[in-house]
Amino acid sequence: MESESKQVMKQRKKQVEVLDILKEALTIFFKNTNFSIFTLLTSLPLLLLMVHFETLFQQTLVDTVRFLNHVFLSLNRRFDGGFRYHYPYQYGSRVSLDQDYTVFSSKDYLPNLIQLVFMYLVPLHVLEIGSAILTVYVSSKLKSEEERMSLKGMFQESFDASTMKGTFITSLYLLALSSGFLLAVPWIVNNTFTIGFYSYIVSALICFAALTKLLIVYLEWSAIWNMSIVISVMDGIYGVGALRVSWFLKSGDQKRGLYLMLVFFALGVCFRLPCIFLGCYEGGYGIFVQVGLFFVVNTLKWVSCMIYFCDCKERKLEKKIVDVELGKDLQSGS
Q1: Which residues on neighbouring strands pair with residue 93, listed in sequence order?
Q2: I need a surface site. Which of 124, 144, 151, 196 has the fewest CB within 10 A?
C-alpha cells in the first residue's frame, strides 16, 4: 500500500509542471474567444492608464540612470586626481556630466516621480486587482466546466461585490509587502556604492549578488502573494488567512512557483527593454504595442496562477488521503 501511494504521488507530480501550466493557460486564453474578448473589455481602463504609466515610468527610469551615471563617474573622477572627462555617447549624442545632471535635476523630475508613485499605489493597483479578480473567476469556470460560456454569461456571473471587497483587502497586504521589496532595491544600490565605489568590479559583484538574491526571494514570494489573490477569489478567504493558506499549499513546492513567476518576469523585461532603448516613451505607437503585450502576459499570468493553485490544492488533498490510508494500514497491521 505504501509503495502504491508513493507511486500515485510521483505520477501526479509529473503531470502538471510549469510547461504544462503554461500550455493549459494558453489553451484557455486563445481557444476561448469569448474569454479573450471579456478580458480585453474588462481591462480597457487598466490598459489606458498603463499607456500613461509606462511612458512616465520609462522616462523617469532613463533620467534616474543618467543621474546615477553622473554620481558614479563624479566619485570616480575625484579618486583619479580630479581628471575631468565625458562619457562619449548617450542615446546617440555626446553628453557631458554637467548636461546629464541638468537633465536629472529638471523641474519636471520630482513631480513626475510623485505622480508615478501615486499611480502605482492607487489607481493602477485598484484596476489591476479588479482585472485579476474577473480573469481568475471566469477562467476557473472555464477550467471546471466542459461547456463554453457565452460573453453575456461571463459578465453576469463575474461581478460579486463581496468577493471584490474581500480580495481588495487581501491585495492591500500584498501591496505593502511588495512595496517593501521595491524599496530594498535602491537601498542595496546605495550601500553598494558606499562599500565599493572605489572599484567598478567590487561594486558590480556586490550589487549583482545582492540583487540576484533579492530577485529570487521576490519571485518566490510573488508566487505566494498571487496565489493568495486566487484563494480570495475562489475560496472566499481574505487577508492574512489567504496568505497563510497560500503559504501552506506552496510549502515543499517553492521551485515550481519560482520558475512560473520567473517566466512572466522575464517576458515583462523582454517587452520593456526594447521599448526603452528605442525611445518609445518619447512618442509613437511603440508604447501601445508594449502595453498590448503586457495585457496578454498579465492575463496568462493570472490564469496560470489559478491553474497552479488548483494543482497545489489537489496535491495537498491527495497527500492527506495517502497519509490517512497509511495510518489505517499501520493501525490494522499492529
Answers
A1: 90
A2: 144
